[in-house]
Each structure stands twice: as structure tokens, then as C-alpha cells.
Amino acid sequence: MTVWLRKLGLHAALGRATRRADTVAVTLRSMIVESERLILREWTSSDFDAYAAMMADPRVMEFLSLTGTPMKRFDAWRSLAGTVGHWGLRGFGLFAVVERQTGTFVGQVGPWQPEGWPGLEVGWTLRSEFWGRGYATEAARRSISYAFDELGVARVISLITPENARSIAVAQRLGERLDGEVSLPHLPADRRVLQYAIERSAWRR
User: Fold this and answer.
1) What is the pTM of this model?
2) Opening angle at CA 128, ends 125 and 131, nearest 5
3) CA 76, CA 54: separation in Å to the nearest integer?
């Protein structure tokens, strides 16, 4: 039986977080998380057009793709399918983020841990027209609380290319600290990214 809660802006199916190796799996999914100005929710098919437009934006993709080039529509479809599939495999994942007042799609933010990742990451990607409003920090802060409180992890990381000054600034505003450099399974062996991290004991809500 599913029991639903409304507490601290969270509508959550009660579930049990389990660990396999260094990964987290959740038996039932928490699908909607709220912050002051934003709703972080499950994905729907109606999100795809805005998602594809975001991934076709050269400013957004500058530090996300191997070559910094925008995604074609089919590649964006495959990317979103992977994001939705992560929810099915792990029981959690990147949320679709929308403005609370307008319902407009802002981007994707949330916890995820693809195969080969060095830990559970809270990541963020926003449409460029919503940059500079504090949305990335707001949604990421809510996602970190979700990771600590609902997923039960002791540590959260964020993986950022060294040239991405905007994301580094977000990580610093969240209280994350530089924790070295790591390689990722989809990147060339000589290409590394910065790992920022924060422990549950250091987290300030």
C-alpha cells in the first residue's frame, strides 16, 4: 500500500532506500518536491519540446557535451529517455523543474547516479533565459535536502567542467567544496572534471 505525505513541500511515497556497492536504490519514488518559486516533478511527454529546445541552445551545451555542440532533436529524445530510465532503475533521478506561478519549464535539476559515477550527484541544467534568477541554486538546494533526508545518503557531489564558472559559483553558494578531479566513463581518459562535495554533517538548509 502506498502512503502519501505532505510535509515541508514534499509529496512522497514512503519507500526504503537500499545500498548496493556505492549506489542508492529507492523502492518507491518521491515524485514532487517544492521550493519557494519552483516545483521539481516527474517528467511528462509534454516536457520534451522545451527540453529539446534547451539542449539545442549553444549556451546551455557549451560545457555539457564532449564537443560543446548543441544536441539534435533525436539526441535530445535519447537523452531524456535516459533520464526517465534512471528513475525506473534507481527510483530517483533528475527532476523536471517548472516555475510555481506559471508552470513554465525551467530545466532539470536533481540527484542521479549513472553507472560508473563516483557518487550520488546533484546536477543542474537550466534554459538560458532563466539564468541569473537564482533558480539553479534554489532547486539544487532543495535537491540536496531531498538526497540527505529522503534518499539517506551521507554525501552529495556535483561534477563540473573546470571552465564552467557559473556552475562552480552555484556549487560554492550551496556550500560544496572542491574535492579533487575525477574521470567519467563517457569522457576521454585524459579529460577530467572537478568534483565538488558536501557532507550531511556540513549541510545548511
Assistant:
1) 0.86
2) 85
3) 9
Domains of the chain: 4-202 (3.40.630.30)
As a whole number of angstroms, the distance between CA 112 and CA 143 comes to: 10
CA distance 33 to 203: 18
What confidence score (pLDDT) does residue 113 get? 97
Instruction: State the alpha helices, DSSP H only, in 46-126.
Output: 48-55, 58-61, 73-90
Please write the tens of the pLDDT for every residue from 100-156. Answer: 999 999 999 999 999 999 999 999 999 999 999 999 999 999 999 999 999 999 999
Written as nine digits, the cell of 157 is 557531489
Distance of CA 16 to the CA centre of its chain: 21
Do the beta carbons of residue 93 and residue 77 sit within 8 Å? no
Number of H helices, E strands in the chain: 5, 12
Can you list the alpha helix ranges (DSSP code H) found in 56-179?
Answer: 58-61, 73-90, 135-149, 165-173
Rounded Cα distance between 93 and 84, Å, is: 8
Tell the residue number behind the cell numbers 525506473, with chain if given. Answer: 88
Pick from 1-5, 12-16, 169-173, 189-193: least confident: 1-5
- What count of Cα atoms within 13 Å lies in the side-chain half-sphere of residue 154? 2
The residue that leads in pLDDT, 186 or 18, is 186
Q: How far is CA 89 from CA 56, 86, 144, in A?
A: 27, 5, 20
